[in-house]
Design a protein that fits this description.
This protein has 14 helices and 19 strands. It is an alpha/beta fold and 428 residues long. The chain binds flavin-adenine dinucleotide.
Length: 428
């Protein structure tokens, strides 16, 4: 049996940041991680299918760089962060490049969409789609804007998303990119100071009935005075980690009210040396002609590599996750719809789609609040059992950084600060 001051469940951004803060204050910590490697949803890989080029399968952009806690850490290590930029952005309408007039219409519709959403009454909370109202159906650009704002950025379609949660988590500000991937950067910044991590060691049950908490793992029981749980709400909803006694109704309800959205990256090797006449890091998308049509946003040849990455989110992403072959067809159909049969000649075998939906350690991309559940994040962040059991991670953020690595880092630190007695419970 291992005994520590604080056990941390999950070695993602929140868990690593919490451990680093606690160890800095002299606490004995142990991180239990179900996967074979730390990093969680910030995962940089070098898939053989991409010939060794690195890929961020999860988080890629350092959002809201002005206030993101990752930025000062990277600067202290002199890691050069670059502005996320695109050489060109191409919008297509019905198989051809959009005209200047159409671009202007799209911009005007985006401004109108935002004005409607921001002016909608906040109380009672309701679905983002309901707040958009008739504009959803009347404006030809509304389905595209909604796909961007909800399905891709929030990873959930507008009918299922709380208006208040959407308005809070806007991700405004500068996006930066690390030189070798966000997953790699996170490990470079936090692994040294996070202390012992037991990988391939899932926590299966936490008994918080007594003064010391007991955590069941395949490698035996770990006891701790306090526990920080950072696993995704998808894992918690699926019962991937059980609690004895059951969690208080308020916490259980908060978990239920924060399901996981899905954002998938469809990655394809694109061999055409002439890149169909496009420069590296070109961004392509096609006007979405109806609210039920899938929407893909593609970055072609990022950093001059020979692959393209299409992003698909919300219901369309869940559909693709159920049938991996569908991803390939969807992607090829999308390219044909934009560029005609020319597109076919650039694809080489070896594509794949990220699997956050079925990965049992995550079961989705990041959390969203259901309509009417605007307080769920605050409720989840409330300590349980006189502060012996804490939840932390992207789902707990109430400061507009939910769903991000920066938010998860801040939240790991928040939980550590509560344990160290530096902060009240805060949010309610
Ligand atoms: C496709 C995609 C794109 C994204 N893009 C961005 C982006 O560009 N910028 C950005 O800031 N954010 C982005 N995000 C979101 C970001 O990755 C997450 O918000 C953040 O990494 C969450 O960190 P966390 O510590 O809260 O949770 P996690 O990273 O999920 O950490 C929890 C850890 O718990 C482990 N675990 C699960 N069950 C158990 C168990 N029973 N016992 C022990 N361990 C367990 C998991 O393996 C995981 O390592 C993206 C996410 C995805 C999926």
């Amino acid at each position: 049996m291992s005994e520590v001051d604080v056990a941390i469940i999950g070695a993602g951004a929140a868990g690593l940041a919490a451990a680093a803060a606690l160890r800095g204050a002299g606490r004995r910590t142990l991180i239990l991680e179900a996967a074979a490697q730390p990093g969680g949803r910030a995962r940089t890989t070098r898939p053989a299918a991409l010939g060794g080029a690195w890929l961020d399968e999860g988080a890629a952009w350092i959002h809201m760089a002005e206030t993101n806690p990752v930025v000062p850490m990277a600067e202290a290590r002199r890691v050069p962060l670059k502005k996320a930029f695109r050489n060109a952005s191409l919008m297509f309408v019905q198989g051809r490049a959009a005209t200047a007039t159409e671009h202007a219409e799209y911009d005007a519709a985006s401004a109108r969409w935002e004005a409607i959403v921001m002016a909608a009454p906040a109380v009672p909370d309701r679905a983002l789609a309901a707040a958009i109202g008739p504009f959803r159906h009347e404006n030809p650009w509304a389905p595209t804007i909604e796909a961007w704002e909800a399905s891709l950025i929030q990873s959930v379609d507008a009918p299922y998303l709380s208006l208040a949660d959407f308005r809070l988590n806007q991700l405004d500000g500068t996006n930066l990119m690390p030189p070798e991937g966000f997953g790699q950067l996170l490990l470079d910044l936090l692994l040294d100071s996070a202390g012992p991590i037991r990988v391939n060691c899932p926590a299966t049950r936490i008994d918080w009935s007594g003064p010391h908490l007991r955590i069941d793992t395949p490698e035996g029981v770990v006891t701790a005075a306090q526990v920080i749980v950072t696993v995704s709400t998808g894992v918690l909803q699926a019962g991937g980690l059980r609690f004895t006694p059951s969690l208080p109704p308020q916490t259980a309800q908060a978990i239920d009210d924060l399901p996981m959205g899905l954002l998938s990256k469809i990655v394809a090797r694109a061999a055409g040396a002439d890149r169909l006449g496009m420069t590296a890091t070109t961004h392509l998308f096609r006007r979405r002609e109806s609210l039920s049509a899938p929407f893909l946003s593609t970055i072609a040849w990022p950093r001059g590599t020979d692959h393209v990455i299409a992003f698909v989110g919300g219901d369309a992403a869940w559909a693709v996750a159920e049938d991996p072959r569908a991803a390939d067809s969807l992607f090829r159909a999308e390219w044909r719809a934009m560029l005609g049969s020319e597109a076919d000649r650039i694809f080489a075998p070896g594509g794949f789609t990220t699997d956050w939906a079925t990965d049992p350690h995550h079961l989705g991309a990041y959390s969203y609040a259901r309509p009417g559940a605007a307080r769920a994040r605050a409720l989840l962040s409330e300590p349980v059992g006189e502060g012996r059991l804490l939840f932390a991670g992207e789902a707990c953020r109430t400061d507009g950084t939910a769903g991000t690595v920066g938010g998860a880092v801040s939240d790991g630190r928040r939980a550590a600060a509560i344990i160290l007695g530096q902060e009240g419970t805060g949010h309610l």
